[in-house]
Design a protein that fits this description.
The protein is an alpha+beta fold and about 70 residues long. The chain has one domain: Rossmann fold (3-Layer(aba) Sandwich). The protein has a two-stranded parallel sheet with strand order 1-2. The radius of gyration is 14 Å and the shape is globular. The two termini are about 25 Å apart. This is UspA domain-containing protein. It holds the Pfam family Usp. InterPro entries: Rossmann-like_a/b/a_fold, Universal_stress_UspA, UspA. Belongs to the universal stress protein A family.
Length: about 70
């Protein structure tokens, strides 16, 4: 994937314990990330009231956040 994005882009991944949004933010801080890519499942109902992982990451991340639409209507 990095090849299609252009030279000089480093993509990393890791596993971490804890609440998903908190874990993503901790890893972004630890890795000094410039971008977090997270999916969105279009949470509705009570889940939307309580907040979603992508929403929490977007509001609290130390870097830019790209929320990819991963919703499958079929």
């Amino acid at each position: 994937m990095a090849d299609t994005l252009g030279g000089g882009i480093k993509i990393t991944h890791s596993a971490s314990a804890g609440r998903p949004a908190d874990a993503l933010i901790r890893e972004a801080i630890r890795k000094e990330a410039r971008l977090i890519v997270v999916g969105s499942r279009r949470v509705q109902g009570i889940g939307r009231v309580l907040g979603s992982v992508s929403n929490s990451v977007a509001q609290n991340a130390p870097c830019d956040v790209y929320i990819a639409d991963t919703y499958d209507s079929g």
